[in-house]
Structure formats: structure tokens, C-alpha cells
Design goal:
CATH class of the largest domain: Mainly Alpha
Strand content: 5-15%
Structural class: alpha+beta
Helix content: 40-55%
Oligomer: single chain
CATH architecture of the largest domain: Up-down Bundle
Length: about 240
């Protein structure tokens, strides 16, 4: 049975981290809302008959299993798709890295919506400018520097974040670099000069056959000013 991924149909967003794992593994899946199933997605979130309703998309259905939150979905899928270490310690370390990526994604979002997600960007531009300045100068270098350290200290010396082979955390870091390069091209370029291992991993993932095929396909939605990574030139400093 195909995995069912539930996410908003018109943006990459947090659902893209799950899509990349499914695409890399060559897994059969249905992007439900994109296939006309937006009502089904909302029913699972709001339906009274759902015992464990997800808070928000993305969430994934695998038979009788329904799991939400990007990091939890990937923690579930990782061993099943061959994208996580076999041992518990390695799986937990991969999960920890993914949770740190989730922190970075949340901070990226808050550069353009620092007060409220319910307000338009135009209603909070002065606050966004202040938040983005700190994000560019302090947070991007700190996060990417930590990933650089993780890559450097991987005992396997593989160029991947965990162990000798690719994990879902590598795919997620690839997506973060893609997003930061779109939203903050100048700041990202400066930070990447100091994180050559992160840059090399990004390039390496981009050339994996299934990922390259996905990136070149119509299934890969473009970045836009409706998602997490938004390009507002005034925020790039």
C-alpha cells in the first residue's frame, strides 16, 4: 500500500522534507491534497471520529498508522526507507539532528513573521527587519557551523552527517541550504564560505539520481513567498 502524505498542495513547506525522503527511497506515495484530497486532509485534522487527530500538516498515513510532525514522520520512515542507522543510538542521533533542523526552519519562518503568523508580512516589516538582521548575523552561521562540526566529527569520515551512508537528516540539510539560498542569498553565501562540508553535502545530495530526477520534475514545487523560505530582498541585508 502506498504511503499517503498530507500537506498543503501549493507550497513546499515542511512537507518537502518528507517528500525528499520518499523520493530518494523510490517509495510509492500519494500526495493526497495535490491529488484533490484537500477535504480528506481537513477531515483527518478536524473530524470528530479521529481518535488521534494531527495538529497540522504534514502528516503521514501508513495503513492504520497516522503520524504527524515532520521530525516524527521521518523518525518513523527512516528505518523503513533505509534512511536511518540500524542501531538505536544512531537513530536517536539522526533524530536529534532533525530536531535541530526543525529549530532552524522555525527561526527562518519567524524572520518574516516575527509577531504573528496571522498577520501579513507587511503588517510587521519593522520587526521582521530586526529579526532578520540577527538571523543573518548570528543564527545562520551558528546553525550551519554546528552542522559543519557534526560532519567533521563523524567517525566514519563519510561526508554524511551520521555513519557511512545517507540518512534523512542529510536530505533535510540539503533542503535547508536550498531554502536559505533562496531566501537569503547574500547571507547564505557568506555563511557557506565557512562551512565547506555543508556545501559539499548539499552538492552531493543534489546529484543523487532520484533526487536530481525529482528536482527536475514537475513534482518539485518552486519556492515562493507563501512558504517558509521567502525572498524579501530587504531582509537579506
Amino acid at each position: 500500500m502506498a504511503y499517503e502524505l498530507f500537506y498543503w498542495p501549493d507550497i513546499q513547506g515542511r512537507g518537502e522534507f518528507v517528500r525528499l525522503a520518499l523520493e530518494e527511497a523510490g517509495a510509492e506515495y500519494v500526495d493526497v491534497a495535490r491529488s484533490g484530497g484537500l477535504g480528506a486532509m481537513m477531515a483527518l485534522m478536524e473530524g470528530e471520529g479521529v481518535e488521534r487527530p494531527p495538529f497540522a500538516p504534514p502528516f503521514l498515513r501508513d495503513g492504520d498508522v497516522l503520524v504527524g510532525q515532520t521530525a516524527a514522520i521521518l523518525f518513523y520512515l527512516g528505518p523503513r526507507l533505509g534512511l536511518a542507522p540500524s542501531g538505536e543510538e544512531g537513530r536517536l542521533w539522526t533524530h536529534q539532528i532533525q530536531l535541530t533542523i526543525a529549530d532552524l526552519v522555525a527561526e527562518t519562518h519567524d524572520t518574516h513573521h516575527p509577531i504573528s503568523g496571522g498577520l501579513y508580512y507587511e503588517d510587521q516589516k519593522p520587526e521582521a527587519a530586526r529579526r532578520a538582521k540577527d538571523f543573518r548575523r548570528e543564527r545562520i552561521p551558528r546553525f550551519l557551523g554546528w552542522f559543519e562540526t557534526v560532519l567533521a566529527r563523524n567517525p566514519a569520515g563519510s561526508g554524511y552527517l551520521v555513519g557511512a551512508g545517507l540518512t534523512y537528516a542529510d536530505l533535510s540539510l540539503f533542503q535547508v541550504v536550498e531554502g536559505l539560498t533562496y531566501a537569503f542569498p547574500r547571507a547564505a553565501k557568506r555563511a557557506m564560505r565557512h562551512t565547506p562540508r555543508v556545501a559539499a553535502l548539499h552538492a552531493r545530495v543534489a546529484e543523487r539520481p532520484r533526487i536530481r530526477a525529482y528536482l527536475d520534475s514537475g513534482r518539485r514545487l518552486p519556492f515562493s513567498e507563501e512558504g517558509i523560505f521567502r525572498r524579501y530582498p530587504e531582509l537579506d541585508g
